[in-house]
Every structure is written in C-alpha cells, then in structure tokens.
Amino acid sequence: MKLTKREIDGLACPPGKRDAMFMDEELRGFGIRVTEAGSKVFLFQYRFAGRVRRLVLGPYGDLTPAQARRLAEEARGRVLAGGDPLGERKARALAAQAEMVRRTAEAAADALTLDVLIDRWQIGPLSDRSPSYRKEAPARLRSGLSVLLDRPARSISTTELQVQLDDLASRHPVAARRLHALGRAMFGWAERGGPVRSDSFAGLISYARLLLCRPSDGVAVGHLVRG
C-alpha cells in the first residue's frame, strides 16, 4: 500500500489494539501510526547499531503525505550515509536546551550587579556579625567601589578593582587596606558557592595581595603582587 491521502483517510486502528503501524510499499521505512483514538502520525523506521529506531516526522494534517514522504526520504538518505536521524535530533534538542540554560544563566549573572552582590553578602554571611559591622562593611564597599556598583559583578576585572584601590590608597591607605580585606571576603564568599563564579574574582582572591606604603617621591602607594 502506498500512503496516499485516500489510503490514510481510510486507515483505522484494529479493535482491541492501542495503535497500529502501516508501512508504505514504495519507500522503505516510511509509515504511519494510527491510534485507537484516531490520531495519525507519520514515522520513519530504520535500524542503527543493531536496534530499530523510529523517527517521528509529524502528525497527519500538519503534514501532507507528500511532505512526510520527503522528510522520510531525507532521513533515509542520512541513514544510508551512516547517520542516525533520531540520535541527531536528540543531540540537537539537548544542545538547544543547554544553550537555553546558558543564556538564562548569563542573563541572571548580568543582572547581578556589584551593588546587588553587596546586598546579598550583607543578608547572607554578614547576618551573624555585629549590627555595626553589617552596616559599616557594605557602606565601605559601596563608597570605595562606587564607580563599579552598576556593573555585572562577574564582569569586573582584577585590574579595575586595583585602580580603585590605588586611588583610595593615595588618599587613605588605611581605608584602602580595609576595603581590600572586605573585597576579598565578599568575593571569596561569592567564589566559594555564592551567587557569582568568575575567573577575575578568583584571580583577585586566590593570588592577589595589596601592598601599601606611605606616599614618597610621587611613587604609587598601592600595587599587586601575584604569587
């Protein structure tokens, strides 16, 4: 039987069965599944790695017999070339899902500005600290890193943080040292499983140390030593 519109319209699932497969006599592997509820779905059946696989082409009605036949011919061509149409479809679906997850994570990371990160640090790890520290620490971070507050936290580089520390150190060395300590604590928390994971934070926390000295002969008072 060739699967034409007239033939398909006359197909029905045999009594007592949940569904039945009807195969085309001209195109090997091309068929249609008819359920007891009356739905009809085009399929392409083939063997891959010793197993029978069925690739859903689409419902009858959404696809005409001619359209479904073309899809089956394309799938058969891939099989003859050594491909696995069903496996390829699943791989594409997994890749699309992974891309969606990645984009969602990217959007969430971009929405997490430094200002928001400070808030989360304050209501998280700082919740068991003294009231004065919970107030002072975020205030120092916001004051010392004010130009970076609206930036996505993950995008802030070690160099940018260093510029802010050097600027503060040129005026208030002690304040710069405190800011550096607070920054390391917050970024360290973020890196250890908080809301941010970033190589730039890891670089700052893991091997960056601020050395401060008093101004002398115009020499910069802050610099990083990387170990």
Describe this structure in words.
The chain has 227 residues and is α+β, with helices and mostly antiparallel strands. The chain folds into two domains: 101 residues, Double Stranded RNA Binding Domain; 115 residues, DNA polymerase, domain 1. The chain has eight helices and six strands; from the N terminus they run αββββαααααααββ. The chain has a four-stranded antiparallel β-sheet with strand order 1-2-3-4, covered by helices on one side. The protein has a two-stranded antiparallel ribbon with strand order 5-6. α4 packs antiparallel against α5, α6 runs antiparallel to α7 and α7 crosses α8. The C terminus is likely disordered.
Average pLDDT rating: 86
Query: Whole-number radius of gyration?
Result: 32 Å
What's the N-to-C terminus distance? 76 Å
Low-confidence stretches: 199-227
User: H/E series, N to C?
Assistant: HEEEEHHHHHHHEE
Name given to the CATH architecture of the largest domain? Orthogonal Bundle
CATH class of the largest domain: Mainly Alpha
Helix content: 40-55%
Total tally of structural domains: 2
